[in-house]
Amino acid sequence: MEIISKKVTVGKWKVNCYLISCEDEAWIVDPGDDVETIISSLDLDNYKLKGIINTHGHFDHIGAVAEIKERYNIPFLLHSKDKRLATQGNLYRRMVGDLKLCKTPIIDEYLDDLPSLELKRHKIVIHHTPGHTNGGVCLEINNNLFVGDMLLKGNSSISNLPGSNKELMVLSLNYLFDNFKGFIINPGHGKSFILDNDSINKFKIMI
Ligand SMILES: [Zn+2]
Ligand SMILES: [Zn+2]
After folding, report:
1. How many whole angstroms from 112 Cα to the centroid of ligand 1?
2. pLDDT at residue 86 in the model
3. For the chain, percent of residues with pLDDT exceeding 90
4. Residue 134 predicted with pLDDT over 70
5. CATH homologous superfamily of domain 3-206?
């Protein structure tokens, strides 16, 4: 009954899309782009997919949501405070010079109403961590934390993007440092790492 997480990096913005599975059940996290790559690399056809969870609504993380949602007939879950970001993804894509447009996804359920989600007998705990975006969340399962763009290896998150707020970011980062020391951090871009004293101290210098 092990939890297994698999990752594929997709799109122009090199977003990490994750599949978190236990036996035959799985959740998809942040399908940013490249529908077919996600389907084949993460072997989606071989799972009972429970739904798509997004850590936040930025354009680089939502590009494949609508198509995967429709293909597998599964719900899309997002925090309500990122609704506008997610529904205006193409506007932001154009602002940063990405001409590849994506289909706007329909949000089926808001993460703010759900303290946790189920995966077999495990729980995925939802932590609202505003800052990078207002509706940003981190997903905790066993000793893994999926943080979106809150913590990127060697880079304390980006707080100058649409929807970001530096003061909230500092509060949320301190919440993560206080509660998740020793966890494996799975970021939205780049490599996973362990949140140890050394990495916390490096992040603290940057914020
Ligand atoms: Zn982001
Ligand atoms: Zn991102």
Report:
1. 18
2. 92
3. 77
4. yes
5. Ribonuclease Z/Hydroxyacylglutathione hydrolase-like (3.60.15.10)
Give residue for tokens 């993804």.
89
Q: 58 C-alpha to center of ligand 1: Å?
A: 5
The rounded distance, in Å, linking the Cα atoms of 194 and 203 is 13
Q: Which residue has the tokens 């990405």?
A: 98
Neighbours of 23 (CB within 10 A): 13
Report pLDDT for 156. Answer: 58
Query: For residue 146, how many other CB atoms are within 10 A of its CB?
Result: 26
Gap from CA of 25 to ligand 2 centroid (Å): 26
CA of 162 relative to ligand 2 center, distance in Å? 11
Q: What pLDDT, on the 0 to 100 scale, is given for residue 207?
A: 77
CA of 58 to the centre of ligand 2 (A): 6
pLDDT at res. 91:
84
Ligand found nearest the CA of 32: 2
Q: Is the separation of the CB atoms in 49 and 153 below 8 Å? A: no
Q: How far apart are CA 42 and CA 5, in angstroms?
A: 10
Domain segments of the chain: what residues? Answer: 3-206
pLDDT digits over 95-115, tens only? Answer: 888 777 888 999 999 999 898
Distance between CA atoms of residues 193 and 4, nearest Å: 16
Answer for the pair 15, 33: CB distance below 8 angstroms, yes or no: yes
Question: Could you tell me the two tokens for 174?
Answer: 């301190």
Say whether pLDDT at 150 is over 80: yes
β-pairing, 122-128 vs 48-53, is unpaired
